[in-house]
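hi! just following up on the protien thing from before. the input was this:
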Amino acid sequence: MRRTAVLGSAGTLVAGALIAGAIAAPVANADIRTGTDRAARGAAVAAERAAKQGIDWQDCPADWALAKPIQCGFVTVPLDYTKPNGRQIEIAVDRIGSTGTPGERQGSLLYNPGGPGGSGLSFPRRVVTKNAIWADAAKAYDFVGFDPRGVGHSTPISCIDPQEFVKAPKADPVPDSEADKRAQRKLAAAYADGCKKRSGWMLPHMTTPNTARDLDVVRAALGDRKLNFVGVSYGTYLGAVYATLFPTHVRRMVVDSVVNPSKKKIWYQANLDQDIAFETRFQDWMKWVADNDATFHIGNTVAAVEKQWDTLRATAKKAPLGGVVGPSELLGVFQSAPYYDSSWVPTATLWSKYLAGDPQPLIDAGSPDLSDLAGNAKSENSNAVYTAVECVDAKWPTSWQRWDRDSTRLHRDHPFLTWSNTWRIVHLRHQRGVWPDSRLTCGNGEAPTDLVGASRCSELSLGGNG
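and the predicted 3d structure came back as:
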């Protein structure tokens, strides 16, 4: 469950759990250890270079939708940290200065919202919009957002034409037969082939450790001796990896909605665990819908609400709503409720209107907007980064029979998102084969996933003078 950060006085930010103390990660073998050592030296070279160059802050490009006084810029980082003077890529960054006095300022505060594949460029807007939760922290810190490597306005990756990616209706993710499973696997193979064709030069380097190294180069370019960082969801894993690679560079770090960094979890088991978590939250939401039946008129028990969901799903499968909203698109709408409490009322309202005879709001919510070229590109890019990073970071099962067995078992009691998530991560299995000759293939072991001490958590703050 997502935990909300709460600001106290004097710029103190208290959130879920925080990595404390020394964190070390074992490496997989001698070859990986050698590569990691070379990458560490390359990261030091890149950080020293960035510290000298700084960041050329300018007004943000109009199409970034980041108005003054937010400023934007780029930091150049190596594609491959074992070759720091080789091919370079760009990391997009933005900032807004601290609102307090010079004496209150404690440096920059960097933010990652999760993913992998999420953009952090909206972070400085929390100051512009006068978000009360962040007001005290804003007195002490310049708020700095960034697009991680591969994301958005940084050097991006892509696996499929964005307009094709958003087209609907897509196939029902819940298979009725072995033929349905074969069809989904064929789509996954085609997707992986598209990744190779469109972004193959960058894919082997789309790792969390490399993103953490990028983060350290950005720190150096900002002129900060140590890093202040807030990470949410996947951002907690990024923070943990950063603290593993650069333990002496951490000043303040908040990790909220923590990813279990165990080597046994990253990333296959973590995705299976997420299926269970989504079902739990979906059940929480359905109970709330039932408790508020006087408002929504969907059902006054969880069983009644669940029956309505099954009926809606079956109806959309037989004849997609508005010709475009099938079971897959319905999941795109309804999964926001398990994600965010703030989506409970809007999602229930869409459903209530549909049952009352007004299907258009639900159709509009589930339909792609083919005129939104920028939004569609963002969605496709986010998915590409998600699959690429999780693929390259960790070891994955090579047997389809295991995937099939695990998903079939989980679906029995956790049907909401299990198969949908399965097909997304099956893309990762197929990506394993698109760069088989690279040292950095899926499961290369380079990511320090077994974070010793990561479970020894306590609360830290962004206040104080450390």
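The chain is about 45% helix and 10% strand.
Residues 1-32, 434-445, 447-466 have pLDDT under 50 and may be disordered.
cheers
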